[in-house]
Here is the input.
Amino acid sequence: MTASGARVPIDAQSVDAPLSRSAVFLTMTIGPDDDDLEAVRDVIADLDGLIKTVGFRDLGAHLSCVVGIGASAWDRFVPHVRPRELRPFTPISGGKHDAPATHGDLLFHIRAERQDFCFEFERLLLAALGDHAVVLDEVSGFRYFDTRDLLGFVDGTANPVAQDLDASALVGDADSAWAGGSYVVVQKYLHDLAGWNALGTDAQERIIGRSKSDNVERDSATEARPSHKTLATIVDDAGVEHDILRDNMPFGRPGSDEYGTYFIGYSGELWVLERMLERMFVGDPPGTYDRLLDFSRAVTGATFFAPTHDQLVDLEQLAATPPPDAAAADAGADDGTTDGGVPTTASAGDAPLATPAPHRDHDHDHDLGIGSLRRPQGRTP
Here is the structure.
């Protein structure tokens, strides 16, 4: 379901929910016992009820929540079957800058036009989870002036729009068992604002690849070194450009001298997100890393899979479904790569790439990008 109409709250797992003025990014770990897992499963299966409890107070607030499940937690929920590309976040050592991997069993991406709605939803969610899950990281984000980040540049210029949104953000027919789900990568970046502001506007624009005042794209062909915009543009081996959906948010605590951007990217293919980060931290060619990283340091990194609404509700049934023949599960993926030449099969020790019960359809660049953050047209601002 989309957010249009505003007669009922937005369903859980609506990746295409309106980009919002406020958001909470909540990363949690599940307790070790079976009763912890069962309690968490019950809470996330009834997420719609919690959204309605809070959301009906003001439907115009567009409260929504997407739940992502990490690879290790997924193997506990559904031991015999895993989405084809789901794997833990791979840390990147780029020589000068690193992208660390941090643990996360669950991600709750809570969005609303009103900060109090995000607060109340999170409060009730944590009360429902009780001691069965522990908060690892909690970030409250906000929209900053005319959709700028704290570095002063417009943060929203290259997200997919209209019909392209689903094709970029959601799993498609190539992995039909999980069609409609989405891979999610999150990173928390802390900014050195003093160092950044000391650069001057011209140097900042060369790093970003866009003008600061009016967000005009600079010509990539004239760059002496690849800009952030260029490195965050992903083209596969066949020359096809791949977009992702971003819903980044600035955050900060001036009293603690903490300023940052919370990056969240949704994609139907995890390799697109992974290649983007590799280009940023390693460079293409190697050594030409994203100079934005000289002023923005990644302190977290985690990967999740956001299943469809129906699959989230039916995790228990999904776990009870016997795995099909492994050969059938891997049909069409014999070479183990995507069109972009990136491996998609699980590594040794990963859960088998089996196929679950058939999915039931439910009604339903500058940017500390990390990548280009075009805000889709036609979506509620």
